[in-house]
Amino acid sequence: MLSSIRIVLVETFHPGNIGAVARAMKNMGLSQLTLINPRVFPDDEATSRAAGAKDLLEQAVVVNTLEEAIADCQLVIGTSARERTFDLPLMDLESAAELMLDKATNGTIAILFGRETMGLTNAEMLACHRHLYIDANPEYPVLNIAQAVQLVCYELWRQDRKQNQRPTKTQQAESHPRQEEMKLFYEHLETVLRKTNFIIPQHEGRVLDKLKRFFNRAHPEKNRIGHFARHFSFG
Known about the structure:
Elements: E1 5-10, H1 15-27, E2 32-36, H2 44-50, H3 54-59, E3 61-63, H4 66-70, E4 73-79, E5 90-91, H5 93-103, E6 108-113, H6 122-126, E7 130-132, H7 145-164, H8 179-195, H9 207-218, H10 222-231
Parallel strand pairs: 1-2, 1-6, 2-3, 4-6, 4-7, 5-7
């Protein structure tokens, strides 16, 4: 299941952190690394800090946008030490790891880690289904990005070993739509809402953002999204 989990670093500033993240991932059996607009990559410092995980750096995927990084993912987890104003389900490390391993049986999972100085933006968190919070000293809860990745990967490794010792599940895992499919669904939904004057150009408000939060929170199965799409149509 660990092979289906992707670590996504957003606009990493220090190349050494990329190398340290690769090493942390390989320590715990993860191999998918995606970089969104890193300041410098490849780089000798990244290679040096990666130590024996140079192969992960060589296989790393570099993209320009978050949309590209998560297009094929069925579950997206955003990591942040800060509380956000919108109502995104908050999960601790243990429960998040259990959820990710459960969903990884039937699709790709992305875990987003933000910039060293400011983390993930609210817009990036809105693209996520869950908010992962690593419990730490409330007086100083901010972790180095490689430390945060190490903790998350360790818990995934630990939970994976526990699940492998349990009897094999016979039921089919739920199938969820990929983010590229959700993008098409949101485009269709927006078109319908505008044509029916539910969204008025002069007073648009934040209807679409609220609907995206609703669907991300609900994280509906693929067949449910198909039902919604058929329902929001003109026949």
